[in-house]
Specification:
Layout: E1 4-10, H1 13-27, E2 32-38, H2 44-52, E3 59-60, H3 70-88, E4 92-96, H4 100-111, E5 115-119, H5 134-144, E6 147-150, H6 153-161, E7 169-171, H7 175-183, H8 193-196, E8 204-209, H9 218-233, E9 237-242, H10 247-257, E10 263-266, H11 271-280, E11 283-286, H12 290-297, E12 302-304, H13 312-317, E13 320-322, H14 327-339, H15 341-348, H16 359-370
Parallel strand pairs: 1-2, 1-4, 2-3, 4-5, 5-6, 6-7, 8-9, 8-11, 9-10, 11-12, 12-13
Helix pairs in contact: 1-2, 1-7, 1-16, 3-4, 4-5, 9-10, 9-14
Length: 385
């Protein structure tokens, strides 16, 4: 039989981090011809991840423009990917998660009558506006997908409730855990002395990220006021905040947090630096989705600056807590983790529900089963929590 031709499509840094281990896995197997198409919905941050994992795009649409909108991203990606699919004619397109590139890639494949595999399928908040546009991107992609590679049992359950046939779903764990095996190193050296010279044993490093659309304005200001209060009241605390490049984020953050001796406001970090800083820190405070998966695998408590999450597994397991964006609540929940050893240990030692580092292997194995190369359906990931 000819090789199974797979076209992997992504366009942002988070997608690239999670798809890189799968691309590497497919490329090393003789049964697959794996090619990569990127939209470069994000440009600089995406390129850094490709370099880190030594992946070269076969097709680069380079669609990113100044002041781009959801309309421009969607139409540019759809038109560009349509031309790529005309040329490649793959047996399957694989997309990831919930970005606009993800939806456009699945739609372009559908228009070409090409099968779609959806990695990280089945995440839901059940509110189409939160997060926006991600919740609808992943639901629409799910409607177009032929195979759903769900990271967890809860994600599988969401899909079953939406009418997806059980045989179209396979629970694999999350590929981001695969990526951490590559990026996190005991002897890692940061690119700046600011991070290399921190006293990670004596200081309590709080790693912060906050930049989601729904948190812009007053919610972000609330977050920053809580962080400043923590830095003022706990001399052993050092807050490290890689600040998103969005001016609406930077203006608020630097106005409230700038100039404090125990708050480091940094430019966005490269993927390997972010992962290793996470491994060294005391806890994580974030509105990110990906960090809710990554930090638990590194034994770090996570306080989530949102009122909902599409990743309830870690909340159930006890390593993540949803705390919203009110200043006093943020301060109080962080204070507990700084002062109550039992509270901290309970979160830090909770079982990571997101994977064991073999998700990419499971996806590749299932593809061999799906295309009739292997007779036996491979075992799925089962988390114990």
């Amino acid at each position: 039989m000819d090789k199974i031709k797979i076209l992997v499509i992504f366009g942002t840094r988070p997608e690239a981090i999670k798809m890189a281990p799968l691309v590497q896995e497919l490329k090393k197997r003789d049964n697959f011809q794996c090619e990569v198409a990127i939209t470069a919905q994000h440009r600089e941050m995406l390129d850094q991840v490709l370099s880190l994992f030594n992946i070269k795009a076969d097709y680069d649409l380079n669609i990113m423009t100044e002041k781009q909108t959801l309309f421009s991203i969607t139409t540019s990606a759809l038109l560009g990917l349509g031309k790529v699919l005309d040329k490649v004619k793959p047996d399957m397109v694989i997309v990831h998660g919930d970005t606009t590139t993800t939806f456009a890639g699945a739609l372009a494949a559908f228009y070409h009558r090409i099968r779609v595999g959806h990695v990280e399928a089945g995440l839901r908040t059940h509110d189409k506006w939160l997060p926006f546009p991600e919740e609808m991107n992943r639901k629409l992609t799910g409607s177009l997908a032929d195979i759903h590679f769900s990271p967890t049992e809860i994600a599988r359950k969401n899909l079953l409730e939406e009418g997806v046939k059980p045989e179209k779903i396979v629970v694999t764990g999350n590929t981001v855990i695969d990526a951490l095996k590559t990026t996190v190193k005991q002897d890692f050296i940061f690119s700046t002395d600011l991070l290399n010279n921190l006293d990670y044993k004596r200081q309590k490093i709080i790693l912060v990220t906050a930049h989601r659309r729904e948190n812009l304005g007053k919610p972000l200001a609330n977050i920053c006021h809580a962080l400043r209060k923590l830095a003022d009241n706990f001399p052993e605390v050092k807050i490290i905040y890689p600040v998103h490049l969005n001016p609406a984020v930077r203006d608020t953050v630097f106005d409230i947090l700038g100039g404090h001796e125990r708050i480091l406001l940094l430019k966005p970090l490269d993927t390997d630096e972010m992962h290793n800083l996470m491994a060294h820190c005391y806890m994580v405070v974030t509105d990110s989705g990906g960090l809710q998966e990554e930090a638990p695998s590194l034994g770090k408590p996570v306080l989530v600056l949102r009122n909902e999450t599409e990743r309830p597994e870690a909340v159930k397991a006890g390593t993540v807590k949803i705390i919203g964006t009110e200043s006093e609540t943020i301060y109080e929940e962080a204070r507990k983790l700084l002062t109550d050893k039992d509270e901290y240990e309970q979160m830090a030692n909770a079982i990571n529900p997101y994977g064991d580092g073999h998700a990419s292997e499971r996806i590749a194995d299932f593809l061999l089963y799906y295309f009739g190369i292997n007779k036996d359906k491979p075992a799925e990931f089962k988390a114990q929590y």
